[in-house]
C-alpha cells in the first residue's frame, strides 16, 4: 500500500541553524501539507501546497519557514534559523483531489529537537 | 471548519465495543466528518469518514445522527492496539483551496486488558 515517507526520523540541531525536513508524498497525490505537534499539544496546521505554490498558511508559518517541491517526488520544509520553540514533531500529509473526498495520508513524522 | 467537541478520555475493556462520541452541531450540509487516530507520536491515521449515511469499513463504523449534529465512531471489538487519541474533524468542503485539517484535542481511548 502506498504511503507517505519522511526523512530524517529525528533531527537534532543547534539554535540558529537551518534545517530541511523531507517528505515523499504518495505519487499520484496533488495536495501537500505540513503539520507540527509540540510535545503534549495538538496537531497544528502549518501550510498547504498545490500546483507548485502555497495554497494557505497558518500564523505559525512565518518568514522563517519555506516549502518547496524541488522535483516530482520530494516536498520539503525549510526552517531558516531554528528556535528552541521549533522543537516538535513535523508531519507531512498528502491527498489526491477527488470530488469531495478529502482523505489525507500522513507520514510518520520527523522529530526536530533544537538545542 | 465546523467546531467539534469530544470527551477528553475514555476507557474500554478489551474485546468490547468502543463508542466514541463527537458533537459537531455547527456542521454545514456539505461538510464531511472525518475520524483519525494517533498512536503515541506517530502520524495521524485515517479511520473513516461520512456525510449523512452510516459508514462501515474494516476498521470501524461511523454512525451519524439524522440532523448531522453528532456522530459516533464504533470500534466493534477493541484491542490493546486501539489505545490512541481519536480525532473527529469536520473540514470545509473541498471547494476551498487548501482543505487543511484543524485538529482538536481528541479523545484519549485506553483499552484495558
Summarize the structure.
The complex is a heterodimer of chains A (115) and B (113). Chain A has 115 residues and is mainly β.
Describe this structure in words.
The complex is a heterodimer of chains A (115) and B (113). Chain A is mainly β. In chain A, 0% of the residues lie in helices and 50% in strands. Chain A has strands spanning 5-7, 10-13, 19-24, 31-37, 43-50, 53-57, 65-68, 75-79, 88-95, 105-106, 110-114. The relative contact order of chain A is 0.34. Chain B has strands spanning 9-13, 18-23, 33-38, 45-50, 55-56, 61-64, 70-75, 84-89, 107-112. A five-stranded mixed sheet of chain B has the order 1-9-8-3-4, with no helix packed on it. A four-stranded antiparallel sheet of chain B has the order 2-7-6-5, with no helix packed on it. In chain B, a hairpin with a 4-residue loop joins strand 5 (55-56) and strand 6. Chain B is globular, with a radius of gyration of 13 Å. The model of chain B has no long low-confidence stretch (mean pLDDT 90). At the A-B interface, strand 4, strand 5, strand 9 and strand 10 of A face strand 3 and strand 4 of B.
Any key phrases for this structure?
heterodimer; A: 115 residues; mainly beta; B: 113 residues; 5-stranded mixed β-sheet; 4-stranded antiparallel β-sheet; 0% helix; 42% strand
Helix and strand arrangement:
The complex is a heterodimer of chains A (115) and B (113).
Chain A: E1 5-7, E2 10-13, E3 19-24, E4 31-37, E5 43-50, E6 53-57, E7 65-68, E8 75-79, E9 88-95, E10 105-106, E11 110-114
Parallel strand pairs in A: 2-11
Antiparallel strand pairs in A: 1-3, 3-8, 4-5, 4-9, 5-6, 7-8, 9-10, 9-11
Chain B: E1 9-13, E2 18-23, E3 33-38, E4 45-50, E5 55-56, E6 61-64, E7 70-75, E8 84-89, E9 107-112
Parallel strand pairs in B: 1-9
Antiparallel strand pairs in B: 2-7, 3-4, 3-8, 5-6, 6-7, 8-9
Provide the β-strand percentage band of chain B.
35-45%
The low-confidence runs of chain B, each spanning 5 or more residues with pLDDT under 50, are none
Shape of chain A: globular
Estimate the helix proportion of chain B, in percent.
Answer: under 10%
Individual helix count of chain B? 0
Q: What overall form of chain B do the CA principal axes indicate?
A: globular
How many DSSP E strands of chain A? 11
Number of strand segments of chain B: 9
Class by alpha and beta content of chain A? mainly beta
Could you give the distance between the termini of chain A? 37 Å
Strand content of chain A: over 45%
Number of helices of chain A: 0
Amino acid at each position: 500500500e502506498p504511503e507517505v515517507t519522511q526523512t530524517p526520523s529525528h533531527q537534532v540541531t543547534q539554535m540558529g541553524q537551518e534545517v530541511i525536513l523531507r517528505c515523499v508524498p504518495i505519487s499520484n497525490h496533488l495536495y501537500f501539507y505540513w503539520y507540527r505537534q509540540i510535545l503534549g499539544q495538538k496537531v497544528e496546521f502549518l501550510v498547504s501546497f498545490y500546483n507548485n505554490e502555497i495554497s494557505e498558511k497558518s500564523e505559525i508559518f512565518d518568514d522563517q519557514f519555506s516549502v518547496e517541491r524541488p522535483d516530482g517526488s520530494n516536498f520539503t520544509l525549510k526552517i531558516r534559523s531554528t528556535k528552541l520553540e521549533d522543537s516538535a514533531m513535523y508531519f507531512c500529509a498528502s491527498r489526491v483531489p477527488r470530488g469531495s473526498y478529502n482523505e489525507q495520508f500522513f507520514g510518520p513524522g520527523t522529530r526536530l529537537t533544537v538545542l | 471548519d465546523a467546531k467539534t467537541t469530544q470527551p477528553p478520555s475514555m476507557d474500554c475493556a478489551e474485546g468490547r465495543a468502543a463508542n466514541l462520541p463527537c458533537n459537531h452541531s455547527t456542521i454545514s450540509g456539505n461538510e464531511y466528518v472525518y475520524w483519525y487516530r494517533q498512536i503515541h507520536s506517530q502520524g495521524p491515521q485515517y479511520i473513516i469518514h461520512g456525510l449523512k449515511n452510516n459508514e462501515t469499513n474494516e476498521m470501524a463504523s461511523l454512525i451519524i445522527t439524522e440532523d448531522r449534529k453528532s456522530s459516533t465512531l464504533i470500534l466493534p471489538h477493541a484491542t490493546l492496539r486501539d489505545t490512541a487519541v481519536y480525532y473527529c474533524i469536520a473540514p470545509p468542503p473541498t471547494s476551498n483551496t487548501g482543505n487543511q485539517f484543524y485538529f482538536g484535542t481528541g479523545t484519549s481511548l485506553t483499552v484495558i486488558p
